[in-house]
Amino acid sequence: MNAIQIKNVTKRYHDVTALDDVSFTFEHGKIYGFLGRNGAGKSTLINIIANRIFTDEGEVLIDDMPAKENMDVHEKIFCMSEEDLYADGIKVKDHFKWIDCFYESFDRKKAFEIAERFGLNTGKKFKQLSKGYQSIFKLTVAMALNVPYVIFDEPVLGLDANHRELFYDLLLREYENNERTIIIATHLIEEVANLIEEVVLIDKGKVLLQESVENLLETGYSVSGMANNVDAYCDGKNVIGYDELGGMKIAYVLGERFPAPQGSGVQLSAMNLQKLFVKLTEKGGN
Ligand SMILES: Nc1ncnc2c1ncn2[C@@H]1O[C@H](COP(=O)(O)OP(=O)(O)OP(=O)(O)O)[C@@H](O)[C@H]1O
Protein backbone atom coordinates (compact mmCIF):
# COMPACT_ATOMS: atom_id res chain seq x y z
CA MET A 1 0.00 0.00 0.00
CA ASN A 2 1.11 3.59 -0.62
CA ALA A 3 3.88 2.96 -3.04
CA ILE A 4 4.92 2.64 -6.64
CA GLN A 5 5.72 -1.02 -7.21
CA ILE A 6 7.66 -1.98 -10.30
CA LYS A 7 7.08 -5.67 -10.91
CA ASN A 8 9.20 -7.62 -13.38
CA VAL A 9 9.06 -4.86 -15.97
CA THR A 10 10.67 -5.50 -19.33
CA LYS A 11 10.60 -3.01 -22.21
CA ARG A 12 12.19 -3.57 -25.60
CA TYR A 13 12.66 -1.26 -28.54
CA HIS A 14 13.39 -3.61 -31.47
CA ASP A 15 16.71 -5.18 -30.54
CA VAL A 16 17.36 -2.87 -27.54
CA THR A 17 16.23 -4.08 -24.12
CA ALA A 18 15.73 -0.78 -22.32
CA LEU A 19 14.44 -2.45 -19.13
CA ASP A 20 15.23 -6.03 -18.29
CA ASP A 21 12.97 -7.68 -15.70
CA VAL A 22 13.14 -4.72 -13.31
CA SER A 23 11.54 -5.04 -9.86
CA PHE A 24 11.71 -2.60 -6.97
CA THR A 25 9.52 -0.22 -4.95
CA PHE A 26 9.38 3.53 -4.47
CA GLU A 27 7.90 3.84 -0.98
CA HIS A 28 5.55 6.60 0.08
CA GLY A 29 7.00 9.68 1.74
CA LYS A 30 10.58 9.62 0.52
CA ILE A 31 12.68 11.70 -1.84
CA TYR A 32 14.43 9.43 -4.32
CA GLY A 33 17.35 10.02 -6.60
CA PHE A 34 16.76 7.92 -9.70
CA LEU A 35 20.23 7.69 -11.17
CA GLY A 36 21.86 6.01 -14.14
CA ARG A 37 24.13 6.75 -17.05
CA ASN A 38 22.89 7.95 -20.42
CA GLY A 39 20.67 5.30 -21.95
CA ALA A 40 20.36 3.33 -18.69
CA GLY A 41 16.55 3.18 -18.92
CA LYS A 42 15.41 5.94 -16.54
CA SER A 43 13.09 7.82 -18.90
CA THR A 44 11.68 4.55 -20.20
CA LEU A 45 10.63 3.53 -16.70
CA ILE A 46 9.33 7.01 -15.88
CA ASN A 47 7.23 7.01 -19.04
CA ILE A 48 5.82 3.62 -18.10
CA ILE A 49 4.93 4.82 -14.59
CA ALA A 50 3.33 7.94 -16.11
CA ASN A 51 1.31 5.79 -18.51
CA ARG A 52 2.86 7.29 -21.63
CA ILE A 53 4.23 3.97 -22.89
CA PHE A 54 3.50 0.38 -21.94
CA THR A 55 5.55 -2.57 -20.76
CA ASP A 56 6.22 -5.65 -22.85
CA GLU A 57 6.19 -7.74 -19.69
CA GLY A 58 5.46 -7.01 -16.05
CA GLU A 59 3.40 -4.20 -14.53
CA VAL A 60 3.49 -1.08 -12.38
CA LEU A 61 1.19 -0.82 -9.36
CA ILE A 62 0.45 2.50 -7.72
CA ASP A 63 -1.10 2.16 -4.27
CA ASP A 64 -1.77 -1.45 -5.26
CA MET A 65 -3.69 -0.45 -8.42
CA PRO A 66 -2.38 -1.23 -11.91
CA ALA A 67 -1.09 2.02 -13.41
CA LYS A 68 -1.92 1.08 -16.99
CA GLU A 69 -4.74 3.22 -18.36
CA ASN A 70 -6.26 3.75 -14.93
CA MET A 71 -7.79 7.18 -14.26
CA ASP A 72 -7.81 6.68 -10.46
CA VAL A 73 -4.07 6.25 -10.61
CA HIS A 74 -3.63 9.13 -13.01
CA GLU A 75 -4.84 11.60 -10.40
CA LYS A 76 -2.21 10.46 -7.90
CA ILE A 77 0.82 11.07 -10.04
CA PHE A 78 2.44 13.86 -12.00
CA CYS A 79 5.51 13.62 -14.15
CA MET A 80 7.52 16.67 -15.18
CA SER A 81 9.72 15.87 -18.12
CA GLU A 82 11.57 17.55 -20.90
CA GLU A 83 8.82 16.92 -23.43
CA ASP A 84 6.81 20.02 -24.24
CA LEU A 85 3.20 19.30 -23.46
CA TYR A 86 2.15 22.93 -23.30
CA ALA A 87 0.69 24.97 -26.14
CA ASP A 88 3.15 27.56 -27.39
CA GLY A 89 0.72 30.41 -27.93
CA ILE A 90 -0.89 30.42 -24.48
CA LYS A 91 0.23 32.74 -21.71
CA VAL A 92 1.64 31.24 -18.51
CA LYS A 93 -1.21 32.62 -16.39
CA ASP A 94 -3.77 31.11 -18.78
CA HIS A 95 -1.99 27.78 -18.63
CA PHE A 96 -2.40 27.98 -14.86
CA LYS A 97 -6.10 28.66 -15.37
CA TRP A 98 -6.54 25.64 -17.64
CA ILE A 99 -4.55 23.32 -15.42
CA ASP A 100 -6.73 24.46 -12.51
CA CYS A 101 -9.80 23.35 -14.48
CA PHE A 102 -8.39 19.91 -15.24
CA TYR A 103 -6.55 19.04 -12.02
CA GLU A 104 -8.48 19.19 -8.78
CA SER A 105 -5.21 19.10 -6.85
CA PHE A 106 -3.70 22.16 -8.57
CA ASP A 107 -3.07 25.08 -6.24
CA ARG A 108 -3.19 28.12 -8.52
CA LYS A 109 -2.26 30.56 -5.77
CA LYS A 110 0.82 28.53 -4.98
CA ALA A 111 1.72 28.42 -8.69
CA PHE A 112 1.72 32.22 -8.85
CA GLU A 113 3.78 32.41 -5.65
CA ILE A 114 6.38 29.99 -7.01
CA ALA A 115 6.43 31.83 -10.35
CA GLU A 116 7.13 35.05 -8.49
CA ARG A 117 10.01 33.51 -6.54
CA PHE A 118 11.63 32.56 -9.84
CA GLY A 119 10.82 35.84 -11.54
CA LEU A 120 8.71 34.00 -14.12
CA ASN A 121 6.65 36.51 -16.11
CA THR A 122 3.18 34.96 -16.14
CA GLY A 123 2.01 37.42 -18.79
CA LYS A 124 4.31 35.87 -21.39
CA LYS A 125 3.30 33.16 -23.83
CA PHE A 126 5.07 29.81 -23.39
CA LYS A 127 6.98 30.22 -26.65
CA GLN A 128 8.26 33.64 -25.54
CA LEU A 129 9.98 32.14 -22.51
CA SER A 130 13.68 31.33 -22.62
CA LYS A 131 14.60 27.62 -22.39
CA GLY A 132 15.41 27.98 -18.71
CA TYR A 133 12.12 29.73 -17.98
CA GLN A 134 10.19 27.09 -19.94
CA SER A 135 11.70 24.55 -17.51
CA ILE A 136 10.85 26.82 -14.59
CA PHE A 137 7.25 27.01 -15.77
CA LYS A 138 7.05 23.19 -15.87
CA LEU A 139 8.65 22.91 -12.42
CA THR A 140 6.19 25.45 -11.09
CA VAL A 141 3.25 23.40 -12.34
CA ALA A 142 4.70 20.20 -10.82
CA MET A 143 5.32 21.86 -7.46
CA ALA A 144 1.85 23.43 -7.32
CA LEU A 145 0.09 20.09 -7.80
CA ASN A 146 -0.78 18.39 -4.52
CA VAL A 147 -0.47 14.83 -5.74
CA PRO A 148 1.15 12.07 -3.65
CA TYR A 149 3.67 11.09 -6.35
CA VAL A 150 5.73 13.61 -8.28
CA ILE A 151 8.40 12.58 -10.75
CA PHE A 152 10.98 14.95 -12.16
CA ASP A 153 12.89 13.74 -15.22
CA GLU A 154 15.96 15.99 -15.57
CA PRO A 155 14.20 18.91 -13.86
CA VAL A 156 16.94 21.53 -13.93
CA LEU A 157 17.99 21.39 -17.59
CA GLY A 158 18.76 24.93 -18.68
CA LEU A 159 18.42 26.45 -15.21
CA ASP A 160 21.21 28.70 -13.96
CA ALA A 161 22.90 27.88 -10.64
CA ASN A 162 20.78 30.34 -8.64
CA HIS A 163 17.54 28.93 -10.00
CA ARG A 164 18.73 25.36 -9.43
CA GLU A 165 19.39 26.16 -5.78
CA LEU A 166 16.03 27.86 -5.46
CA PHE A 167 14.31 24.82 -6.95
CA TYR A 168 16.01 22.39 -4.51
CA ASP A 169 15.18 24.71 -1.64
CA LEU A 170 11.51 25.07 -2.60
CA LEU A 171 11.21 21.34 -3.17
CA LEU A 172 12.58 20.52 0.26
CA ARG A 173 10.31 23.06 1.94
CA GLU A 174 7.33 21.79 0.01
CA TYR A 175 8.18 18.24 1.08
CA GLU A 176 8.53 19.24 4.74
CA ASN A 177 5.06 20.80 4.70
CA ASN A 178 3.43 18.06 2.69
CA GLU A 179 5.16 14.70 2.80
CA ARG A 180 4.89 12.83 -0.46
CA THR A 181 6.99 10.75 -2.78
CA ILE A 182 9.34 12.72 -4.97
CA ILE A 183 11.46 10.99 -7.59
CA ILE A 184 14.24 12.96 -9.26
CA ALA A 185 16.05 11.55 -12.28
CA THR A 186 19.19 13.59 -12.75
CA HIS A 187 22.83 13.51 -13.73
CA LEU A 188 23.70 16.31 -11.30
CA ILE A 189 24.30 13.90 -8.47
CA GLU A 190 26.21 16.11 -6.07
CA GLU A 191 23.60 18.84 -6.38
CA VAL A 192 20.86 16.54 -5.12
CA ALA A 193 22.99 14.54 -2.68
CA ASN A 194 21.76 16.55 0.31
CA LEU A 195 18.17 16.44 -0.85
CA ILE A 196 17.55 12.78 -1.57
CA GLU A 197 17.05 10.08 1.04
CA GLU A 198 17.39 7.03 -1.13
CA VAL A 199 19.10 6.16 -4.38
CA VAL A 200 17.88 3.79 -7.05
CA LEU A 201 20.71 3.20 -9.47
CA ILE A 202 19.86 1.70 -12.82
CA ASP A 203 22.45 0.44 -15.25
CA LYS A 204 21.87 -1.07 -18.69
CA GLY A 205 18.21 -1.73 -17.95
CA LYS A 206 18.76 -3.39 -14.57
CA VAL A 207 18.66 -2.10 -11.00
CA LEU A 208 22.24 -2.08 -9.76
CA LEU A 209 21.54 -0.76 -6.30
CA GLN A 210 18.82 0.63 -4.05
CA GLU A 211 20.11 2.09 -0.83
CA SER A 212 19.68 5.02 1.54
CA VAL A 213 22.13 7.85 0.93
CA GLU A 214 23.14 7.68 4.58
CA ASN A 215 24.14 4.01 4.28
CA LEU A 216 25.90 4.57 1.00
CA LEU A 217 28.01 7.38 2.36
CA GLU A 218 28.73 5.40 5.50
CA THR A 219 29.89 2.31 3.66
CA GLY A 220 31.74 3.94 0.78
CA TYR A 221 35.27 5.19 1.32
CA SER A 222 38.50 5.70 -0.56
CA VAL A 223 41.95 4.39 0.25
CA SER A 224 44.94 6.29 -1.11
CA GLY A 225 48.69 5.81 -1.01
CA MET A 226 51.47 3.98 -2.83
CA ALA A 227 50.00 1.24 -5.01
CA ASN A 228 51.50 -1.66 -3.07
CA ASN A 229 50.26 -0.27 0.28
CA VAL A 230 46.78 0.32 -1.10
CA ASP A 231 46.65 -3.21 -2.53
CA ALA A 232 47.78 -4.68 0.79
CA TYR A 233 45.09 -2.78 2.74
CA CYS A 234 42.37 -3.64 0.23
CA ASP A 235 43.11 -7.34 0.12
CA GLY A 236 39.80 -9.18 0.70
CA LYS A 237 37.72 -5.98 0.61
CA ASN A 238 34.97 -5.05 -1.83
CA VAL A 239 36.85 -2.69 -4.18
CA ILE A 240 34.53 -1.13 -6.76
CA GLY A 241 37.18 0.78 -8.70
CA TYR A 242 40.59 2.42 -8.84
CA ASP A 243 42.26 5.63 -9.98
CA GLU A 244 45.99 5.55 -10.58
CA LEU A 245 48.58 8.24 -11.16
CA GLY A 246 52.26 7.35 -11.29
CA GLY A 247 52.94 5.05 -8.36
CA MET A 248 49.99 6.44 -6.41
CA LYS A 249 46.69 4.67 -6.27
CA ILE A 250 43.21 5.37 -4.94
CA ALA A 251 40.92 2.43 -4.33
CA TYR A 252 37.19 2.91 -3.82
CA VAL A 253 35.78 0.46 -1.33
CA LEU A 254 32.32 -0.52 -0.10
CA GLY A 255 31.97 -2.10 3.32
CA GLU A 256 32.96 -1.65 6.94
CA ARG A 257 35.74 0.85 7.34
CA PHE A 258 38.58 -0.69 9.37
CA PRO A 259 41.10 1.92 10.55
CA ALA A 260 44.38 1.77 8.63
CA PRO A 261 47.05 0.17 10.85
CA GLN A 262 49.94 2.41 11.86
CA GLY A 263 52.67 2.40 9.25
CA SER A 264 50.37 0.97 6.58
CA GLY A 265 51.05 4.04 4.44
CA VAL A 266 47.44 4.51 3.37
CA GLN A 267 44.94 7.23 4.04
CA LEU A 268 41.20 6.64 4.31
CA SER A 269 38.72 9.32 3.22
CA ALA A 270 35.00 9.65 2.71
CA MET A 271 33.67 9.03 -0.79
CA ASN A 272 31.08 11.34 -2.26
CA LEU A 273 27.94 10.12 -3.99
CA GLN A 274 29.08 11.12 -7.46
CA LYS A 275 32.33 9.21 -7.17
CA LEU A 276 30.47 6.18 -5.92
CA PHE A 277 28.11 6.40 -8.86
CA VAL A 278 30.94 6.81 -11.38
CA LYS A 279 32.84 3.84 -10.01
CA LEU A 280 29.81 1.56 -9.83
CA THR A 281 28.81 2.29 -13.41
CA GLU A 282 32.25 2.77 -14.94
CA LYS A 283 32.47 -0.32 -17.07
CA GLY A 284 31.23 1.01 -20.39
CA GLY A 285 28.18 3.06 -21.26
CA ASN A 286 25.54 2.06 -23.76
N1 LIG B 1 11.54 5.44 -28.66
C1 LIG B 1 12.65 4.69 -28.65
N2 LIG B 1 12.99 3.95 -29.72
C2 LIG B 1 14.09 3.15 -29.71
N3 LIG B 1 14.94 3.06 -28.66
C3 LIG B 1 14.68 3.79 -27.57
C4 LIG B 1 13.52 4.66 -27.50
N4 LIG B 1 13.53 5.25 -26.30
C5 LIG B 1 14.61 4.80 -25.64
N5 LIG B 1 15.30 3.93 -26.39
C6 LIG B 1 16.53 3.21 -25.99
O1 LIG B 1 16.29 2.60 -24.74
C7 LIG B 1 17.44 2.71 -23.90
C8 LIG B 1 17.06 3.44 -22.62
O2 LIG B 1 16.79 4.79 -22.93
P1 LIG B 1 16.24 5.83 -21.86
O3 LIG B 1 15.85 7.06 -22.61
O4 LIG B 1 15.21 5.18 -21.01
O5 LIG B 1 17.56 6.10 -20.98
P2 LIG B 1 17.85 7.22 -19.88
O6 LIG B 1 18.42 6.49 -18.71
O7 LIG B 1 16.66 8.07 -19.65
O8 LIG B 1 19.02 8.04 -20.59
P3 LIG B 1 19.44 9.61 -20.53
O9 LIG B 1 20.05 9.83 -19.18
O10 LIG B 1 20.44 9.69 -21.64
O11 LIG B 1 18.22 10.42 -20.79
C9 LIG B 1 18.51 3.41 -24.73
O12 LIG B 1 19.32 2.42 -25.33
C10 LIG B 1 17.72 4.16 -25.78
O13 LIG B 1 18.45 4.32 -26.97
- From the helix content, strand content and strand pairing, which structural class follows? alpha/beta
Number of domains: 2
Work out the number of β strands: 14
Give the C-level CATH assignment of the largest domain: Alpha Beta
User: What is the helix tally?
Assistant: 10
The CATH superfamily name of the largest domain is: P-loop containing nucleotide triphosphate hydrolases
The CATH topology annotation of the largest domain reads as: Rossmann fold
Unique ligands: adenosine-5'-triphosphate
What does the radius of gyration come to? 21 Å
Shape by Cα distribution: globular
First-residue to last-residue Cα separation: 35 Å
How much of the residues is beta strand, in percent? 25-35%
Output the strand order for the largest sheet. 6-7-8-3-9-10
H/E element sequence? EEEHEEHEHHHEHEHEEHEHEEEH
Uncertain runs with pLDDT below 50, 5 residues or more?
none
Give average pLDDT, whole number: 92
In the CATH hierarchy, the architecture of the largest domain is 3-Layer(aba) Sandwich
Give the biggest beta sheet: 6 strands, mixed
Q: Helical proportion?
A: 25-40%
Domain ABC transporter: 4-229
Protein name: ABC transporter ATP-binding protein
GO molecular function: ATP binding; ATP hydrolysis activity
InterPro entries: AAA+_ATPase, ABC_transporter-like_ATP-bd, P-loop_NTPase
